[in-house]
Design goal:
By secondary structure, the chain is of the alpha/beta class. The chain has 3 domains: 52 residues, no CATH class; 226 residues, 3-Layer(aba) Sandwich (Rossmann fold); 68 residues, Arc Repressor Mutant, subunit A, CATH 1.10.10. It contains 12 helices and 16 strands. The protein has a 9-stranded mixed sheet with strand order 7-6-8-9-5-10-11-12-13. Strands 14-16-15 form a 3-stranded antiparallel sheet. It is globular and about 100 Å long. 28% of the residues are buried.
Amino acid sequence: MTADVLRAVEGSRRPAPGTPEWERDRRAFEDAVPRLPPITTEYEGFPEAHGYVRDRGAEPPRGNGQAGTAAHKAQAAVRSSGKVARPVVLRPIHEIVAEEREPQWLIHKLLEAWVLAVIAGPRSTFKSFIALHWAMLCAIAGRVVVILSGEGAGLDRRVAAWMREHGHDVDLATLPIVALERPLSLNLADELAALAAALAELPERPALVVIDTLSKFSAGLDENSNFEMAMFLSRLATEIRDAFGCTVLLVAHSGHTDGKRPRGASALMANPDAEYIVERPNPIGMTVTVTRERFKDAPALPPLAYEARVVPLGRTDQYGEPVTSLVLHGTDAPPTPARSRAAGKNQTNAMTALREWARSHDREDHIPSDQLAALLKAQGIGRQRKPEVLNWLANAGILTPAVAGHVINRGAL
């Protein structure tokens, strides 16, 4: 820098802005500092973007809210990764309509191809058996399946029982299905990359990757953080779903107080392409239902019902006990709800509040989870009593669980 600039910066007397002295020092400073060209990144490898240049110096999102903070973190993560963002290509709408797209199914009207899906339910609702049932159906159809099982021993018995019931004419050795029986922390870049490398070494690309369960494969993830959950799902979608053109099915536990949504951050319910909720109306019954209300490209369909049956494997363990496992069979019979006890104070207050809600929402039958929680809280029903009240209302036929809430049966009120 020149001596004049140094005096302007370090001198004890600073000229007032707008004075001739201030203008003189500003011009001297600009002349002394070399002008640098803007930092740009040229897109390469994208034919549709040849000739385009993107300015990397975009200002980070403003605002003090959580959305601004999350967006700033996401932008910083992309920059620090060293990856070039994909170009934004705007297409004429008539070209999009002319493609006449249709849903692509792995299992017709049940599981779509190339999606990130979540199947969630409370414990003991057979959701792992459902995921295995779908995986085996895909493998029987000749599609490559990968099962990540972190729940411990038992996969061998479940597969053996399934083959006895549904695949007795098929040689298990010929099925294109592989498995891992230990947890990974897919929240860590190294372990996610190791999984991707293992998938790339398969003779054929996988059509379905089952992750059972989410909690076993996301160590270190704050499941209540929308930002962390959204980033985790985004990495799975990019590194697994998109990289291999496959479906990723996450098995997750539902919330402690709301069995109709996955546990943790709402991003786990909002960000996936498809969602399935499993319900076991009678805790001692063997029939469960699975919703089909949210697909990526297909319209909503009625729920499915499965009946779990005990299958002996024809051998005994070291204690002389018969070795068995459960296998699911489709059924048209609706689950039999558990018999409801007589209504107590909390149940009565909840029914009164639901009647008031139904009167003020005469054109709506779906009550969202947050509104229902607020309604019960206003009746003095806290978090500890809420599951008991909701179970009673469901068993009494007053509420039917639905995605992100419940449906009110006005006739039962």
